[in-house]
Specification:
Layout: E1 2-6, E2 15-20, E3 30-35, E4 40-52, E5 55-68, E6 73-81, E7 87-89, E8 94-102, E9 116-127, E10 130-135, E11 139-145, E12 148-154, E13 159-168, E14 173-175, E15 181-186, E16 196-198, E17 204-206, E18 210-216, E19 234-239, E20 250-252, E21 257-263, E22 273-279, E23 282-283, E24 289-293
Parallel strand pairs: 7-15, 17-24
Antiparallel strand pairs: 1-4, 2-3, 4-5, 6-8, 8-12, 9-10, 9-13, 11-12, 13-14, 13-15, 16-18, 18-21, 19-22, 20-21, 22-23, 22-24
């Protein structure tokens, strides 16, 4: 006879039974059949039962142990931990992990050759009230570092993306239960090389009237910033025949754009006003002299 005397927690459906190896049952060799759905270590106790002159005796044969390994991974019980993907930043690797499990929900800490995680990313594009998706140049990667797949998505364009995460084996590729995952990619920090200034006030003014132009802040990838906070990084200076106060010339629209205003008073001067605009300490090249008309 055989009994299980130690088993992993939650393995109540495990069974063990003894069957004779030969049909006549006289060989003295027996087979033990064991079934379990929970991985881990099991300990069995085997006993020999006999009867002599009507007296039953039980002799302990010994204890034996075995380790049950998880079955092959399946997508249905595997999961991606994607909290880091919900709010990503353009140009940064946004990491997440994938935990593999077998059909019975046992965690898998080693993988065989041919097992991998595939990631396919598409950008959501709004058009005429409807949304479509298109493939973008998004960098992805996965590497197995026991007990998890360490993965990342890196997108340079801001916007909303759908990331399909699938378990790939030698036989099939199946998406994880909650795939695809929504990723909102936000612009990174303001960059001087992509930030632009446009408006009539860049080159034309009327004496005694407020002239304006607009600065649109962008990150290094050309994404328009969606919030303000960089007014102090935009500096206007004007030189010319009369002093121009530009101390409070930049106003923050709190949407990534800034209105820049100034007032000059001398028109048609032999010495024109010259505008200098700095963004993050970098001068905006190619700014012409201001043409001032009389009021």
């Amino acid at each position: 006879s055989a009994v299980i005397i130690s088993q992993p927690e939650g393995s109540g459906d495990s069974t063990i039974g003894i069957t004779t190896q030969l049909a006549d049952g006289l060989s003295g060799v027996y087979d033990a059949q064991f079934y379990a759905t929970v991985s881990g270590e099991y300990v069995f106790e085997f006993s020999a039962n006999s009867s002599l002159n009507g007296v039953a005796t039980v002799a302990l044969v010994g204890e034996f142990s075995t380790t049950v390994s998880p079955a092959s991974p399946v997508a249905a019980t595997s999961s991606a931990h994607t909290q880091a993907l919900t709010a990503a930043v353009a140009g940064e690797q946004n990491a997440f992990t994938v935990a593999l499990a077998d059909i019975f929900g046992n965690d898998i800490s080693t993988v065989s050759a041919g097992v991998d995680i595939n990631i396919a990313v598409q950008k959501v594009v709004a058009s005429g009230g409807a949304s479509t998706t298109q493939v973008q140049g998004v960098e992805t990667g996965c590497i197995f570092v026991s007990p998890l797949f360490q993965c990342y998505v890196k997108a340079s364009l801001s916007g909303q993306y759908l990331a399909s995460v699938a378990l790939a084996t030698t036989n099939d590729t199946v998406a994880l239960p909650e795939s695809p995952y929504t990723i909102d990619v936000f612009p990174s920090a303001m960059d001087a090389s992509t930030t632009t200034a446009v408006g009539t006030g860049m080159s034309n003014a009327v004496a005694g009237e407020t002239s304006t132009f607009k600065v649109t802040s962008r990150d290094i990838y050309g994404n328009n910033l969606l919030s303000g906070g960089n007014a102090a990084d935009i500096v206007l200076a004007i030189s010319g025949p009369t002093p121009v106060n530009t101390t409070a010339s930049v106003s923050d629209n709190m949407d990534g754009s800034y209105n820049v205003s100034y007032m000059v008073t001398r028109a048609l001067s032999l010495r024109p006003y010259e505008l200098s605009l700095e963004v993050l300490g970098r001068k905006n090249a190619g700014v012409p002299a201001i043409q001032v008309r009389p009021n």
